[in-house]
Amino acid sequence: MKAFTTLRQKLKNSKVWAYGKYVLLFYALMMIIYGYFMLANLSTAPKFIYAQF
Q: CA 38, 46, 49: angle at the middle one, nearest 5?
């Protein structure tokens, strides 16, 4: 148990781990935005334009 707590403390104080958390957070936010735009029906074109093709 002591090894786990020391590892946890080292990770908490690590600058690399802090940077990695921000990178993962940014990536997750970008994927959420990407997923929203891919799944949302945001088309504002009139129906007749689709009927012509």
A: 95
